[in-house]
């Protein structure tokens, strides 16, 4: 039966049953986003990040790891920031208090100029006496 179906003249069969299939499909993309509105990739998933978190997209700061991000994942940037705030409150005298947090919101991972391939939802809690910018902006994909 399959051989008969494959050998049939589909154009005639389609006409007989009233089926019409276009020979060319044109897919036109429409951009109906209001001017000045952020691109989706610039929006952090999850609940909004509070202003006291000082969130900066595509940014990494140097600092000693207070909590290692490879094994510390959070659902959102807001949760990562809250983890930093909570750690700073709980730190005992003489322990480093989190004052830098770095979160990877991208499902495909995030770039950082270190030896690790950072994965989605990694949350690095760091401390630096004087936080120093390590990386800013997007990493070239070429």
UniProtKB/TrEMBL annotation:
Cross-referenced InterPro entries: Pan_app
One Pfam family named in its UniProt record: PAN_4
Domain Apple: 59-126
Top-level taxon of the source organism: Eukaryota
Membrane-spanning residues: none
Protein name stated in the entry: Apple domain-containing protein
Organism of origin: Manihot esculenta (Cassava)
């Amino acid at each position: 039966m399959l051989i008969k179906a494959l050998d049939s003249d589909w154009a005639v069969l389609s006409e007989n049953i009233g089926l019409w299939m276009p020979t060319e499909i044109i897919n036109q993309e429409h951009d109906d986003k209001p001017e000045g509105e952020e691109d989706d990739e610039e929006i952090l998933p999850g609940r909004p990040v509070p202003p006291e978190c000082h969130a900066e997209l595509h940014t990494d700061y140097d600092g000693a790891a207070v909590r290692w991000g490879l094994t510390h994942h959070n659902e959102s940037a807001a949760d990562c920031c809250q983890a930093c705030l909570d750690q700073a409150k709980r730190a005992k005298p003489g322990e480093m208090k989190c004052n830098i947090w770095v979160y990877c919101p991208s499902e495909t991972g995030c770039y950082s100029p270190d030896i690790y391939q950072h994965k989605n939802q990694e949350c690095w809690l760091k401390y630096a006496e004087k936080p120093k910018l390590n990386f800013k902006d997007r990493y070239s994909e070429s």
